[in-house]
Design brief:
The complex is a heterodimer. Chain A is mainly alpha-helical. Chain A has one domain (4-89): Helix Hairpins, CATH 1.10.287. Chain A has 3 helices and no strands. The longest helix of chain A is centred in the last third of the chain and has 31 residues, at 57-87. Chain A is elongated. In chain A, 12% of the residues are buried. In chain B, α1 runs antiparallel to α2 (28-56), α5 runs antiparallel to α11 and α11 runs antiparallel to α16. Chain B has 4 domains: 1-155, no CATH class; 156-564, no CATH class; 575-607; 622-657. Chain B is built from 27 helices and 2 strands. By secondary structure, chain B is mainly α. Chain B is globular and about 110 Å long. The chains are: A mainly alpha, B mainly alpha. Chains A and B meet through α1 and α2 of A and α27 of B.
């Protein structure tokens, strides 16, 4: 039996990595992936606590998060494609105007 | 009709509203019909009400029509009152007012703004009737302010002329000073009696038990009376607030006759007479009233000596005659004051209307130096003017003789000994000056060589609408004083005093019966001789030797220039009051308080908001990664609040257990 601590620590590390990439990366797809990473880190924590407490609430939440993440991926990728078409770049530094 | 007394003031208001709202497009005839009809009907209603009042035999009619203010025990209503004093005032106001309306239809026929003029004039009648019919101080004050408003509107009737609009403002502002005193007086009375109803105050047990305040120990009543008298000073143009009345002559002549001679300016005298019971308890205030009245009478008469504008002479004469009325009230002869008010309304209205007729005849000229020799050309006007002049100068049997005589007699008898003689002396000197300047006016205007250009000015008699009111007023100026004649001749009582007895009975100081008649005849003789001297001097200076007046003026250059410039009172006020006030208003109130303080605060808040917005704007860089940082920082702050919030924050980690 792996102690809950380990899961939580792993989750924190993954979340920290996601956060770091979210702030410092320039490529919009990388930023998008780092958000997914943070979501999954949280999912891991949920599942771990669910196991530790013997309650199903955490697992239900994970399902919700997965659904939301899927929807987000659909919308987000759509936006990214549009940006790439209009700006010919994926660098967020170059995407600082609402106007084309 | 007595039960529906409110109709009397309401009719002119209706006339004012109809003419003011719809008159602009109407021909003059319809405007005339509305204006004269409403005031004439009002006059008839007043006559009917007066008749019913006498037939019912009651001493005092008082009716509450509507409640206006009700707060606790305090009540102010549209209550109207009728007693003998009101009867005199209402009949003078509606009667003389009606005649002047008729005259004005002739005088104003060629003027623009015809409907506006009559609308204002009717509005004035409404407020004046409210003033004299009111049964409490508050409603009286409504009328008081209302006549001030219509006076302002009518003085500034030719508002395109700067001098006219300035004169209107001056009248309004000077009156405001007096009104402030009047309001303070009302507050003081309310504090003392907890009501402002005339009957309630005058018959209250508080007042009955109130000791007569000794002179030198002023109490509440003295102060209240003095403050009310301040208001009267403003409205009735007494020292030191008289300065607006001569300037008010900028208005059309019928206005000068109605408002600034016959009715509105006598409102102050009316208020003092109405409050006579209060004044009777405050001898100090009475003395002040007498002295101010006497001083004003003399002071204004001296200025009147040298004026060359025909209306200005009459204006100073009005101030002077109002001084007589206050002198009468001040020595306790209220009925004599009201008597003079009535006769003065007749002959001074006549003087102004006749002067208007003269001005009309010579094509708008007001300077007496450019008239002369008019007596043959405008004979009816001349006769009317002469009648009024004889009346104001105090020749028997004209009206002014009786009223002025009874005032001088009362001053002689009741003023306290040395003070009484001084008041009498100045009153007599004023009578001399009055007869001099009035006959100077007659001689300069109607006699001697003609000094106008005959080719330019076509002298013509005025139309009948103007002459008929002149004739009626001339008759009244002759017979108006005869009510007091029996007392003078020793065949009966003074009917006017007897008539007002129910009102003033308590406060009138009556002299000893027997020796009065001898004294009265002596004083009357002296007064007539004085008036004759005035006429003779005027005749000698202005008719016999036309150059003599100028020689006299040159030999007393200092006095003459001082008089010609009205003692520099206007200049003095300008330097002492107007200039400092303007300076304070400009530099402190306007530039410091308003611009720097209020505007500064408002603009400062706006500028501060702009600056903050300008700073915060930079967070919205458009740079996606900085938004990412903000999201993270926000999340951290939320977490920090959840974990470290000091005030009973829920320990979220507690869920772990």
């Amino acid at each position: 039996m792996v102690p809950t601590n380990y899961y939580v620590i792993l989750s924190a590390i993954l979340f920290g990595l996601g956060l770091f990439a979210f702030i410092f990366k320039r490529n919009i797809i990388t930023i998008f992936m780092s958000i997914e990473l943070m979501l999954n880190a949280v999912n891991l924590a949920f599942v771990a606590f669910s196991q530790a407490l013997g309650r199903l609430d955490g697992q239900v939440f994970v399902l919700f998060v997965i659904v939301v993440a899927a929807a987000e991926a659909a919308v987000g990728l759509g936006i990214i494609i549009l940006i790439a078409r209009s700006r010919q770049t994926l660098n967020v530094e170059r995407v600082n105007l609402l106007k084309l | 009709m007595l039960e529906y007394l409110w109709i009397v003031p309401l009719l002119p208001l209706l006339g004012a509203a109809v003419n003011g709202l719809f008159g602009a497009k109407w021909p003059n005839k319809i405007v005339n019909g509305v204006a004269i009809g409403s005031t004439g009907l009002s006059f008839l209603c007043a006559l009917k009400a007066v008749r019913e009042f006498f037939e019912s035999g009651q001493v005092l009619f008082h009716k509450e029509f509507l409640t206006w203010i009700a707060a606790g025990n305090f009540r102010v209503g549209f209550d109207l009152l009728m007693d003998q004093l009101t009867v005199v005032m209402v009949l003078v106001v509606t009667g003389v007012g009606w005649l002047i309306h008729i005259y004005a239809t002739g005088y104003m026929a060629q003027e623009g703004g015809y409907y506006r003029f009559f609308s204002y004039l009717n509005l004035f009648m409404f407020f004046m009737l409210i003033l004299v019919l009111a049964a409490n101080y508050v409603l009286l004050f409504v009328g008081w302010e209302g006549v001030g408003l219509s006076s302002y509107l009518l003085i500034g009737f030719y508002f395109l002329r700067k001098s006219a609009s300035d004169a209107g403002k001056k009248a309004f502002i000077v009156n405001r000073i007096g009104d402030f005193g009047f309001m303070l007086g009302m507050f003081l009375l309310f504090r003392a009696f907890h009501t402002l109803d005339f009957q309630a105050i005058f018959t209250s047990s508080t007042l009955q038990g109130w000791p007569v305040e000794l002179s030198g120990h002023p109490g509440t009543l003295t102060f209240a009376c003095l403050l009310i008298f301040t208001g009267a000073c403003g409205k009735s143009a007494q020292l030191p607030l008289y300065v607006w009345l001569p300037d008010a002559m900028e208005g059309p002549t019928p206005v000068s006759a109605l408002i600034h001679a016959a009715t509105m300016v006598t409102a102050g005298v009316y208020v003092v007479a109405r409050s006579h019971i209060l004044f009777a308890h405050a001898p100090t205030a009475m003395l002040v009233v007498a002295i101010v009245g006497c001083a004003t009478a003399f002071f204004a008469a001296t200025i009147g000596l040298v004026q060359t504008d025909i209306k200005k002479v009459l204006a100073y004469s009005t101030v002077s005659q109002l001084g007589y009325m206050f002198l009468a009230c001040g020595v306790g002869a209220f009925s004599a004051g009201i008597f003079h008010l009535m006769t003065h309304a007749f002959f001074k209205a006549l003087l102004f209307l006749a002067a208007g007729s003269v001005i009309h005849a010579v094509g708008g000229e007001q300077d007496m130096n450019r008239m002369g020799g008019l007596s043959k050309k405008i004979r009816w006007t001349y006769l009317a003017m002469l009648t009024a002049t004889l009346a104001i100068a105090g020749f028997p049997p004209f009206a002014g003789f009786f009223s002025k005589d009874s005032i001088l007699l009362s001053a002689f008898q009741n003023g306290g000994h040395s003070a009484g003689y001084a008041l009498y002396g100045f009153g007599l000197a004023t009578a001399l000056l009055t007869s001099f300047y009035m006959f100077r006016l007659i001689f300069l205007t109607f006699h001697g060589k003609q000094r106008y250009d005959e080719h330019k000015v076509h002298v013509h008699e005025s139309p009948r609408t103007m002459l008929v009111p002149l004739m009626i007023l001339a008759v009244l100026s002759i017979i108006g004083g005869w009510l007091a004649a029996p007392a003078m001749l020793g065949t009966g009582p003074d009917y006017f005093t007897k008539f007002l007895q129910p009102v003033f009975g308590g406060s009138e100081a009556a002299g000893p019966e027997g020796e009065v008649r001898a004294l009265e005849l002596t004083l009357a003789g002296i007064a007539v001789i004085t008036a004759l001297i005035g006429v003779t001097v005027a005749f000698w200076l202005y008719l016999k030797g036309p150059g003599k007046a100028d020689i006299l003026a040159k030999s007393m250059r200092g006095v003459y220039t001082a008089l010609l410039n009205k003692y520099y009172v206007d200049e003095f006020y300008a330097a002492m009051i107007v200039k400092p006030l303007l300076w304070i208003s400009t530099n402190v109130l306007w530039k410091a308080a308003d611009v720097a303080g209020i505007d500064g605060a408002v603009n400062g808040i706006a500028a501060g908001t702009t600056a903050i917005g300008d700073g915060v704007r930079h967070t919205q860089s458009g740079n996606t990664r900085s938004y990412a940082v903000w999201v993270v920082v926000g999340a951290l702050v939320v977490m920090a609040v959840i974990f470290f919030w000091p005030f009973g924050g829920k320990p979220v980690l507690g869920m772990l257990r």
